[in-house]
Amino acid sequence: MSTYILIHGAFQGKWCWEKVKYSLEQKNHHVIAVDLPGSGEDMTPPQEVTLKSYTDKVIAVLEKVDSPVILVGHSMAGVVISQVAEYLPEKIQRLVYVSAIVPQNGQSLQDIMGDGGPKAIFNKTEKTLTLIDEYIVNEFFNECSEEDATAARRKMRPQPVLPFNGKVVLTEKNFGRVPCIYIETTKDHAIPVEAQREMYRQNSFDDVFSIDADHAPFFSQPENLTKYLHDIS
């Protein structure tokens, strides 16, 4: 069966993939969920975290896997998996973007999102953003159960901001040869589906799947998300 590497989005950690990871493993897939530097259980000081820190972490995981993987990125991690594919295209069977940012060559996450990101407080010393609590459920977990939303809110951490300014370098020779799949989320308040569609229509995606989910389909629609990820294999 296939090997999946799951990369979380901003403010989150590998914990967000627990349901999907378990379900894919029940289908005999090998699944690795990664904590990016400064996120989840990774204690890298946030002011030291850059886009290169992210890509280095994912590359280190990829290099330990013998066969090409299905590399899955949620939200902000669309930028991360794109740049990793440029560096190691031969290690990636497919890229899967789950309600994710799709950058063009030379773009950063900040270039794409502008001032349209989540409502958050900036800590100048630590170089982090902390989500304003009253907006978290409406922007991230609007279709989730109260139990899942409450548990997720407790685990969310301040997000290092320096990776947002890292510009990707993507070429047709490397990134362009990796097959790409997009999974859109139609009830997403963080990255509205219209914005998702505008991004993926600018790229050559092999397929697009649609889930009636919020920005956290791994909580609100884990069965459907697992089904699509399994079918992609």
TrEMBL record:
Entry GO MF terms: methyl indole-3-acetate esterase activity; methyl jasmonate esterase activity
One Pfam assignment: Abhydrolase_6
Residue ranges occupied by any AB hydrolase-1 domain in the UniProt entry: 5-224
Cited SUPFAM superfamilies: alpha/beta-Hydrolases (SSF53474)
Alphabetical list of InterPro entries matching this protein: AB_hydrolase_1, AB_hydrolase_fold, MES/HNL
Highest taxon above the source species: Bacteria
Protein name, per record: Pimeloyl-ACP methyl ester carboxylesterase
